[in-house]
Automatic annotation (TrEMBL):
Gene: psd
Protein name from the UniProt record: Phosphatidylserine decarboxylase proenzyme
Keywords, in A-Z order: Cell membrane, Decarboxylase, Lipid biosynthesis, Lipid metabolism, Lyase, Membrane, Phospholipid biosynthesis, Phospholipid metabolism, Pyruvate, Zymogen
Positions carrying Pyruvic acid (Ser): S208
Mode of membrane association: Peripheral membrane protein
Naturally occurring in which organism (per UniProt): Tsuneonella deserti
């Protein structure tokens, strides 16, 4: 089904399937499963069974389902699964603003809407490109591991900034932020790579957050407390500013 076109008129073939496990997680699942087998061989059942269930949990954490990505250049799709925990007006990080010597000037200075998506250990942790274009920057910054749900995590935690520019000059910056349990951010892309909207660009291990910096003049189409799906949920529509209210029920 990967690569198949499905549309809003019902054309295409959609069916449920088991999600695959990303290669980055298979080694961890196999390691835990091997430890479970060793404990079972030694008749340490009190350890063997919990480790067996843990191996299934690890494989589930690294699940990598297919997503149907809206094909509309006006749309900015969510780069992460999870809960919209913060929507604020902020200056983008300096790493996305300054001229880094590559010839790409970076984002323009000035406050923009930042949408923060918190990923619990139960969410899919594969991150995807919010727009299609050229990867202009991938900037890794070591840091702390405070709760990723806190606003200060954007400036204090281990994080990685990614900047993508479309051929028409529209650029989106977003940041992968490690959390309390997360200890590694894994990139799948590098500067100069061409990516499509919704393409996999990296993952964060075990609980984390992604911040998306929308272009000036663009508001969020999701509301605080909403659950979003990477590559599928429309986070914003370019140039559209509006207030959308949600009811917690």
């Amino acid at each position: 089904m990967a690569g198949e076109i499905l549309d809003s008129k019902g054309r295409g073939d959609a069916h449920w399937q088991w999600p695959s496990v990303h290669p980055e997680g298979r080694k961890f699942g196999l390691m835990v499963a091997a430890a479970s087998l060793v404990c079972a061989f030694l008749a340490w059942e009190t350890l063997a069974w919990p480790l067996a269930f843990l191996s299934l949990g690890v494989l589930a954490f690294f699940r990598d389902p297919e997503r149907v990505v809206p094909q509309d250049e006006r749309m900015i799709v969510s780069p992460a699964d999870g809960l919209v925990s913060l929507i604020t007006l902020v200056e983008p990080p300096a790493e996305l603003l300054v001229d880094d010597g590559t010839g790409f000037r970076g984002l323009a200075a000035g406050k923009v809407t930042r949408v923060s998506i918190f990923m619990s250990v139960f969410d899919v942790h594969i991150n995807r490109a919010p727009i299609g274009g050229t990867v202009q920057r991938v900037v890794y910054i070591p840091g702390k591991f405070v709760n990723a749900d806190l606003d200060k995590a954007s400036e204090e935690n281990e994080r990685q900034h990614i900047l993508i520019e479309r051929p028409d000059g529209v650029a989106i910056g977003f940041t992968q932020i490690a959390g309390l349990v997360a200890r590694r951010i894994v990139p799948f892309v590098k500067p100069g790579d061409l990516v499509a909207a919704g393409q996999r660009v990296g993952l964060i291990r075990f609980g984390s957050r992604v911040d998306v910096y929308l272009p000036a003049g663009t508001d969020s189409k999701v509301v605080l407390g909403q659950t979003v799906v990477a590559g599928e949920t429309v986070l914003a529509e370019l140039g559209i500013q509006t207030v959308i209210e949600g009811v917690n029920q």
